[in-house]
Each structure stands twice: as C-alpha cells, then as structure tokens.
Write a structure and sequence with these properties.
Blueprint (H helix, E strand, L loop, with lengths): L2 H7 L5 H7 L1 H26 L1 H7 L2 E3 L1 E8 L13 E5 L4 E8 L13 E8 L3 E3 L7 E5 L2 E8 L4 E7 L13 E2 L5 E3 L5 E10 L2 E9 L3 E2 L9 E11 L9 E2 L3 E3 L1 H13 L4 E6 L2 E6 L8 E5 L2 E5 L8 E5 L8 E5 L10 E2 L5 E2 L7 H6 L1
Parallel strand pairs: 1-6, 2-7
Antiparallel strand pairs: 2-3, 4-5, 5-9, 8-9, 10-11, 11-14, 12-13, 12-15, 15-16, 15-17, 18-19, 20-21, 22-23, 24-25
Helix pairs in contact: 2-3
Length: 362
C-alpha cells in the first residue's frame, strides 16, 4: 500500500485500526487536526471581532462650530427660512437642517426663537460623547445643549436666537408723496437712517431721525431723478437693517430753481456785532434779533431776550415740541448742532434735540 493513499483515504471508522497498524500515521493525523482547529479559531475570531475593530478606527469629532446669520422678525412665519443662514466648519461633520421649537405661527416682539440644528458625522467619524468634553461654539445665538443620536453619528444642537424685540425688523413700505418721505414703523427700531439719492448717487450725509417721516426738499436744488432710502436701527443691538427705497420721482429744472430761491429767502439778512463777551445780530431795519431762532447763512442760531447769541447746552423752545428741549449750540460760533454726537458724548437729532433713544441704539 502506498503511504500517500493510506493518509488521504483514512476515515473515522478506520482511524483506530490505521493508527494501530501505522503509529507514525496516527501522530501525523493528530498534528493535522490540531492545525485545522487552530485555523478555524483564527477565522471565527476575525469574524466576531471585525465590527469593533472597524469602529475603533473612526476619528473623533471633539469640537463643533456653528455660525448663524440673519434674524427672525416680528410678523413673519415661524418656519420662514429665507432670513436665516446656518454655516458649519466641516471638520468631519455636516449640517442637515434646522427646526424651530416655538409653537406659534408668526413671530411677535415678545418671542425668543429657539432652534434645533441637526448635524451628522461624515463617513469614518463619530462625535465625542458630551460627558467626555464635546465642545460646541455658536456664533449669532446662545448655545443651550447638545444631544447625540444614532450611536454618536448624529448630533442635535439647541440654541436661542436674540429676542425679536432686540433688533429692528424690516420696513414694510416707503412712500415719497409730495417729495416727502414717509415709511411704516419697524418693530424693535430705536431710530432710522435716511438719505436722499439723485440719479443713483446718495447726497450729503445720512440723517438720523426717530419719527417715520423726513422732508429733504430743501436739498432738491438740481434737476434729476430722486428717491429716498431708509433703514432701521435696532433698540438693543444697534444693528441696521438693509436699505428700503421709495418710488422714484422727478425734479424739473424749474422746480430746482424755485427751491433754491426759497432756500435763499429763508436766510436772515443782517450784520454781526460784538457786545462785550456776547455776539448780537442786527437786522437791516436796525433792530436786533431777540428771543427767537434764526437761520443765517444756512446755519441756525438762538438769541435770548437780550439779543445775545447762546452757546453750549441750552434748554429752549424748539419748533414742533410743546415742552422745552435740550439742544447743543456750538461753544465757539453758536450754531445749532444737528444729527451729531456732542464733545461730551451725547447725540442730537436732525432737529438738534437731544435724543437718548439713539444713544441706547449705539
């Protein structure tokens, strides 16, 4: 019998007989069985432990960074998404979507929007456990909490946006009837900035007002196509909305000439006279200006009952107000400061009146 035939034809029923007849073959068979058992154990171990081995290779996301731009505005639908933008630093994760948890249909000034932002880990990444020190940085909102889902492959970040009343909402409409601007009030606005535009170019400086009306006809001394632009300034955060425009209107050459003549006629004609430490203004009829406001060479001055020009901070009667108002008169030349911040840090409006609301907005 050939030795190879005995080894490969051996079976369980003849194992004992063959091993007795040929002891050396039995020894070889025992070694072969042990080798096969070892191979089988290795194969089963690789199957059983393959999933955990792969999981250990996933990289850990230890920091989340989110940037939120835009605002929710009073009167808008709670699920209106056009005004909000979510951005993330894509370091192993990505932004999916967000949802508001507020139950009302539209925003009111009293609301504080609460948002859940859903993130997911990219392939080969997992979020670090919250208790292990996951860091979440949020710009544009206040971070509240982070919740991990799907075996740490998902993360829900809850944040609070600024209160609706903390920022100015949009201006619904701007009109320019009779060449005077009027606009709808902005929820959350402390003041408004308004400018006049001619032929596509803004004129002069931006004016700040607290009322929803502005007359800049005295600046329309050249023919052209005009419009007003207005934006709101928030009460708490001081941020400005985008510009909102009125319909365009045309000023003819004749209208421009008439306006210039009207401006010139409004100026008081006379001469300045020094009286001790004070200045007076003498009219053409020989009388002195007293106890009144006057415009001289396109600047506004106030003279007391003695005819002396006043300077500095004064509490005076101002046209359009029933009670006296604080105004600031230039400490050297005496003219009324308008739409400016005084040297001691106080704001005076377009009419020269001290405006605390604008300081809060700034």
């Amino acid at each position: 019998m050939d030795l190879g035939d005995i080894v490969w034809n051996i079976n369980v029923s003849h194992l004992t007989r063959e091993c007795i007849l040929y002891p050396e073959i039995g020894v070889e068979m025992k070694k072969m069985k042990r080798l096969m058992a070892l191979v089988l154990c290795v194969m089963m171990s690789s199957v059983l432990f393959s999933v955990p081995a792969m999981a250990k290779k996933a990289r850990t996301i230890s920091t989340i960074a989110i940037k939120i731009t835009g605002n929710a505005n009073a009167g808008e639908l709670v699920n209106h998404e056009e005004n909000l933008k979510i951005e993330v630093v894509e370091a192993g994760y990505e932004y999916n979507f967000y949802e508001m948890t507020n139950t009302n249909e539209t925003w009111t000034e009293k609301d504080t929007p609460t948002m859940k932002i859903l993130l997911s880990a990219k392939e080969g990444y997992r979020f670090l456990a919250v208790k292990s020190g996951l860091v979440v940085n949020v710009e544009g909102a206040t971070f509240k909490k982070a919740t991990l889902t799907d075996s740490r492959y998902g993360c829900t970040v809850t944040v609070e946006l600024p209160k609706i009343s903390d920022h100015a909402g949009p201006i619904a409409s701007v009109t320019a009837e009779n060449k005077v601007a009027e606009w709808s009030a902005s929820a959350g606005a402390a003041s408004y900035e308004v400018r006049l535009v001619r032929d596509g170019n803004p004129l002069g400086v931006v004016q700040t007002v607290t009322k929803c009306k502005y007359d800049s006809r005295e600046s329309m001394t050249k023919a052209g196509t005009y419009k007003y632009e207005v934006r709101a300034i928030g009460k708490a955060d001081g941020t400005a909305t985008s510009w909102f425009s009125s319909p365009e209107f045309v000023v003819s050459a004749q209208e421009a000439a008439d306006q210039k003549a009207k401006n010139d006629a409004a100026q008081t004609s006379g001469t300045w006279e020094k009286s001790g430490k004070n200045w007076k203004y003498k009219l053409a009829d020989g009388k002195y200006v007293a106890a009144k406001w006057v415009d001289i060479e396109y600047k506004t001055y106030y003279f007391n009952k003695n005819g002396n020009m006043l300077k500095g901070w004064c509490k005076l009667k101002v046209p359009g107000y029933t009670e006296k108002q604080w105004v600031y008169l230039d400490p050297t030349d005496g003219y009324l400061w308008k739409n400016a911040t005084t040297p001691d840090g106080y704001y005076v409006g377009l009419d020269g009146v001290y405006t605390p609301a604008q300081e809060a907005a700034e």
